[in-house]
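Sanity check record (used in CI):
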Amino acid sequence: MIATVKSIASELKWTQKVKFQSQPALQEAFNQLPHVQGGTDTGSAFGVVLDEFVLRRRNGVPLVIFTVSDGYHR
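Expected output for Reverse transcriptase domain-containing protein:
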């Protein structure tokens, strides 16, 4: 399975494709993601998801979105 991981932090913008075959491989892929300093803005993250993934999706292609957060809010 291939996942596209996208950072929306204003300090660091990047997109990375992550390939994994198992749950441990997925966990390791998450562990390798860079940590971005700064505050949490989950609301803005959902806005980016809406703009870049939901509104631009192709018909007939399933949309699966996972949100990973530090658990803190603004």
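The chain has two helices and two strands. If this sentence no longer matches the regenerated tokens, the check is flagged for review.
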